[in-house]
Amino acid sequence: MKRLRFKLPKTFDWILFIIPILLLCTGIAVIYSLTYYNDQIHLLHNQIIFAVIGIILMIVLTFVDYRNYKNIAWIFYLVGIILLVLVLFIGKTSFGAKRWIDLIFFDLQPSEFIKLFLIFALAALFADYIGKISIQRLIFGLILIAIPVFLILRQPDFGSAIVLVAISLGIILYSRLSMKQLITVILMILISLPTAWMFLKDYQRARIYTFLNPTLDRFGAGYNVIQSMITVGSGGLFGKGFGHGPQSQLNFLPVAHTDFIFSGFAETAGFLGSIVLILIFAILIFRIVNVAKISKDYFGMLLAVGIGVMFLFQIFVNIGMNIGIMPVTGITLPLVSYGGSSMILNLASIGILQSIYLRHKKITF
């Protein structure tokens, strides 16, 4: 009797699989280093559970034909909108924001999942009309974007809102708009900026003022940014090693396991380690760009573009705010920062990218 052996397709992108695993392992190691000595080791256990769930989902989605999402994209979008509405009524409040739905065993953050659901909706809307999108279809797309952005600003969560805008702009630009349509989009964004400013809370506006001048309020709004930059510098060239960073271990670095995990890593691994981490992220973005290029249809291409922009924008903003070149917006570092919803979303997105890569030519084993 022959043994049954499981084989992965030869068209499987191993780099796109290994890099996310390497990044999440890095994040788990840093979270261990940051929490082991301050009675928050449960965060490490939670992150490992989130990572395992995410990896399983990533593998499952790899073998689901991504083209199936085109017909049910609107269902995903509506579910996302319903969850965002529910957050405003029954959401769990933390740090002055109502962003999570308490599921007892897990805090669901709908603003994370709507990123992928919006990518599905916009890709389905524009895929069959690349280069010939009507102004009516474009306006409908802008409405699809505005609804979740408005609901997220109500939480308030400015960081997730601008991620949605960045994702949407990436997909719209790759849909080959006419010059007239492009100008229309730019004007609508410029017009909406004052409205977005009105939705910001005082502490969010203070973060923007602090970005322009971190020393304006050293022990208030500017404290996080200043401590983050000190922590990065504390790592020196080679780093202090795991569990030996004075800034992070003595709790000078705020929310070190989420928003400022890059600073914690920089203190641990130093300048050289930080460069290596950035290069790993660069390889990930390169592989996602490759998936977009080789996709056999426009729907797959737009999915890959949206996911690629989502990763790139969050990586740039998170590292930027850790070193003081971007305002603090609460955007986490993909696959590294602590967080169940974000970890599961990011690994699910990698699974969808693998599905696109897998089907760009005949699948062979």
Could you please describe the fold and organization of this structure?
It is built from 13 helices and three strands. It is mostly helical. It has one domain (14-33, 44-358). It has a three-stranded antiparallel sheet, covered by helices on one side. The longest helix is centred in the C-terminal third of the chain and has 34 residues, at 261-294. The mean pLDDT is 86.
Summarize the structure.
By secondary structure, the chain is mainly α. The chain has helices spanning 14-35, 41-62, 69-90, 110-126, 135-153, 158-174, 179-199, 202-212, 223-234, 246-249, 261-294, 298-322, 340-358; strands at residues 92-94, 97-102, 107-108. The chain is built from 13 helices and three strands; from the N terminus they run H-H-H-E-E-E-H-H-H-H-H-H-H-H-H-H.
Number of domains: 1
Q: Roughly what percent helix?
A: 55-70%
Shape descriptor reads globular
What count of helical segments does DSSP give?
Answer: 13
